[in-house]
Amino acid sequence: MIGFHWLDWSVLGLFALVLIGIVVWVSRMKEDTSSDYFLAGRDATWLAIGASIFASNIGSEHLVGLAGAGASSGMAMAHWEMHGWLILVLGWVFVPFYARSGVFTMPEFLERRYNSTARSFLSIISLVSYVLTKVAVTVYAGGIV
Fold it and tell me: I want to staple 103 with a disulfide (CB 3.0 to 4.6 A). Which of 2, 31, 52, 108 is the partner?
């Protein structure tokens, strides 16, 4: 069967209405602040934060590029995944220090520690690096596949 039947359209419409209703209800319940937007109201669980970080860092270059590199050269591209334990150790060392300082981003930490010029410098370097490395490679990889 090709195309949607009336029942399919009804279920899709009902889903959209329920989703819109939930969005309106939740948006009226909470106070809108920058903390709510950027830090999820500071009440997110570790599982939600971890899933968000994981989803934010997975892109087409992971699904296509790492699979292709692994198929052609073995485990050469799995170094990040194999050394995940080191990130846990670094987290146990550095997170208490950053938590005591009350900052949420590295640019914010640099601004408190040094000045706003250091914050701006890190922000600009991060953006330029991201565009020249991750975005460029993703666009190029999409073009050759």
Answer: 108
Q: Which residues have a Cβ under 8 Å from the Cβ of 104 and sit 6 or more positions away? A: 38, 39
Distance in angstroms (rounded) separating the CA atoms of residues 134 and 142: 12
List own/partner pairs for 43-46 with CB under 8 A and 24 or more apart: none
Res 145: pLDDT: 65
Within a domain: 6: yes
Residue 26 is predicted with a pLDDT of 81
Q: Which residues of the chain have pLDDT under 50?
A: none
Structural domain of residue 18, as residue ranges? 1-31
Considering its fold, how many domains does the chain have in total?
1
- Residue 89 belongs to some domain of the structure: no
Whether 129 maps to a domain, the answer reads no
> Alpha carbon 131 to chain centroid distance?
16
Q: Which of 119, 99, 121 is nearest to 110 (CA)?
A: 119
Question: Does residue 131 sit within a domain?
Answer: no
